[in-house]
Amino acid sequence: LFLLFFMWGVPRGAAPSLAAGPRRVFGEVTPLYDHREIEPKWRAEWERSGLYRFDPDDPRPKFYLLTMLPYPSGDLHIGHWYAYTPVDAYARFLRMNGYNAFVPFGFDAFGLPAENAAIQRGVHPREWTMRCIARMREQMRPMGASFAFDHGVVTCEPEYYKWDQWFFLKFYERGLAYRKRAPVDWCPGCHTTLAREQVVGEDRRCERCDTPVVRRELEQWFFRLTAYADELLEMEGLDWPERVLTMQRNWIGRSEGVRLRFPVEGGDEEIEVFTTRLDTVYGASFLVLAPEHPLVDRLTRPEARDAVADYRYTASRRSEVQRLSTERVQDGVFTGSFARNPFSGRRMPIWVGDYVLLGYGTGAIMGVPGHDGRDYAFARRYGLPIPVVVRPRDAAEAPDADAGPFSDDGVLIDSGPYSGLPSEEARRRMADEVERRGLGQRTVEYRVRDWLISRQRYWGCPIPIVYCDGCGTVPVPEEELPVLLPEDAEFLPTGESPLLRNEAFLRTSCPRCGGPARRETDTMDTFVDSSWYWYRYLDPHYDEGPFDPELARRWTPVDQYTGGVEHAVMHLLYSRFFTRVLRDLGLVDHSEPFPRLFNQGIILGADGRRMSKSRGNVVNPDDLVERYGADAVRGYLMFCRPWDEGGPWQPGGMEGVANFLQRVWRVLVEGSEERRSEGAARAAAAADRRELRRATHRLVRKVSEDMRAFRFNTAIAAMMEFVRQLGRMGEAGLRGTPEWSEAADAFCRVLAPVCPHIAEEIWHRLGHGESVHLQPWPEWDPELTADEAVVVAVQVNGRVRERVRVPAGLDEAELVRVVAADERVRRLLSGRTPRRAVGVRDRLVNFVV
Ligand code: ANZ
Ligand code: ZN
């Protein structure tokens, strides 16, 4: 019966009783670790003593650990914990390593998710947002996070967005903010323009009503991001995931080429194209304009009007990605007009095709079907000529046009005076001719566009601009900031900015002439709010500027940034852009806000799909915490996968981590109480004691290295293995030895960042007074962590000729292999192949030659 109880001490699949229940040992009741009692106790104590209060003036070296600020979406789900737990653990690790770690946590509170949720529920977006924030903060609490919540900005607060507006004015002064007409996505169902992130799916539907969106032209505000495009490409020295660097580079997309004008027949219009392959100009047999190109109307002949109009509507329904896809058949429509190729003199039909984008280059291309894949498909489809003007360097003859386009550089053919030149040289000389004849000029083009910041929605930061009949566009004077977002606005989307119908907001007087004026009613893209928030975190209530420049000098750039890879492009690019503008405004002295970046993975539902309420696959952390305790949930989230991987939630693994913590408790707490006085220590063998020391130091080393590299899962695996070993050594009578104390002490410390509550409790039970979280991180002795080595004798035909150091404990075959590979032994044998080799473990190897 005793045996049965012993074996069943840790019942499987019965975690609730396991967590709280008593265990009977020899008729007494010994309580197991009870998280319900211990975790809240320590949290209260840490809060009371201000354990993690941030002091920017603390003399220890600073470490700014930043995690991307979330939308206040309502409930925290397990994915949030997956993202934040390691951040908290890492912060604790840093503090134990002597850093003054700053880990603030705020909310990206403006934007469509909140606005839409509010509309659905019929509450005001502010109320909804604030409720969510309170709820999420409440839910963060049980996690035991050591974040500086009092430094967490909430971006929808006027004391924050006032400074968005201030930046807007600074940008405007410097010509970095401007207004122009531009196409936006429009939902005919909701009667509103949509933000980019609101358009979903390959077929571009409205996220809310599922109606296909179309394009529409509107006056919009932009930030001149392209002014910094070249500089934003400089990413040397950034310790970022390679794929993020690549995505940034591709998004900016720098191309060197030529702008070249083609005269249109029968008029004085010209079509300007951008090409990176001027060497192929003799092969240009048609021109293609983007459907939105301003010349389309003027060039379309009456008989083509209907076809062109139909085509333009269809094109407005396609996404940019679709339009550029090489998978798709390139289609288009003929305008009825022609242009002339200024190099070859060829007559070229002018087409409209949506594989040409308005926003890139000039919005028009020369079609070179012999050498460009998409032009080739287009020419094939519409029976256009396919001249071949470049041949491969190593082929004497022109490639066959039917075999598909030849798109590499090569040697020019059928290209007038340029025939025979290699592509590179031809490009150079032809560009000279273009400039000499006044047909165009060399240029650098970027794929990246200026940043469209206008939103015709309510829940955002108002743009501080006033329109006056007399004075035109007038910026709101700095002293009048913030332009407050009116609380009483009707925020249901109608297609126009909701602020347009709020008379009290709209009607104002001109700051310049005092006459009647109208406010700008667009609000800013929420990416503006998140482009500088980490500076504000340092002192969220600072009121002499957007942030305290002195604190910024000391505390930024951020030492480590963590967040989801979904922000690999826009958020990071905008933040890098903003920081450069701040630099040029003299507010900061660096250009890169985040020298180091780590992308954590995403936890999916158990069904392998993104967690969402509608799919019913959301895992609620509160239930898990109630059942297993915060430490077990934290430990499991950091153990279940490498942090940058993510993947489907596997609930089964929770038990294993809960059991691990119970074992920790049994080995370190119960065991020590039962047996401390038994005096078994004296009996413990010296070899075992040394083995325990070695195990301890190896653990410390392994966990230190893994934590530093964000390999939390393997750090925890090492802790699990260690506790198993510790348990065995306890049985073997090592309790009470100095080695045992050292082991218990070090283990508590390395456990503390991951499982802060149980580590604190055990630390105190081991007899310490101060918090484990104030202890220095343990050091390891390299001597003890090295593989243990022995010196073996090397004999040749029975005579000792050499001595070699090898790892201890190798079996016979392994020993022979290692010794034979030794440089000196190889020399000793000097090419002779031994007939036989005999090894004796840890002693000798004899080669018979
Ligand atoms: C003629 C040509 C011949 C081209 C050839 C390529 C190969 P990157 O490198 O990405 O900058 N292009 C220019 N503007 C465009 C637009 N608005 N929409 C779609 N395509 C556009 O690409 C530059 C090339 O992309 C340009 O060079 C142009 O096609 C096309 F054998 O001109 B090329
Ligand atoms: Zn005026």
Chart the SSEs and their pairings.
Layout: H1 2-7, H2 15-20, E1 22-25, E2 28-31, H3 35-49, E3 62-67, H4 78-96, E4 100-102, H5 112-121, H6 125-140, H7 158-173, E5 177-187, E6 192-194, E7 199-200, E8 205-206, E9 214-223, H8 229-232, H9 242-252, E10 254-263, E11 270-275, E12 286-289, H10 295-299, H11 305-316, H12 320-324, E13 332-340, E14 347-353, E15 364-367, H13 373-382, E16 390-391, E17 411-412, H14 423-436, E18 440-446, E19 451-452, E20 454-455, E21 465-468, E22 472-475, H15 503-506, E23 507-509, E24 516-519, E25 523-524, H16 526-529, H17 533-537, H18 549-555, E26 560-564, H19 570-584, E27 597-600, E28 602-604, H20 621-628, H21 630-639, E29 646-648, H22 653-675, H23 686-708, H24 712-731, H25 738-751, H26 756-765, H27 782-785, E30 789-796, E31 799-807, H28 812-821, H29 823-829, E32 836-840, E33 844-848
Parallel strand pairs: 3-4, 3-26, 12-14, 26-27, 28-29, 30-33
Antiparallel strand pairs: 1-2, 5-6, 5-9, 7-8, 9-19, 10-11, 10-18, 12-15, 13-14, 16-17, 20-25, 21-22, 21-24, 23-24, 30-31, 32-33
Helix pairs in contact: 3-26, 5-6, 20-21, 21-22, 22-24, 23-24, 23-25, 24-25, 25-26
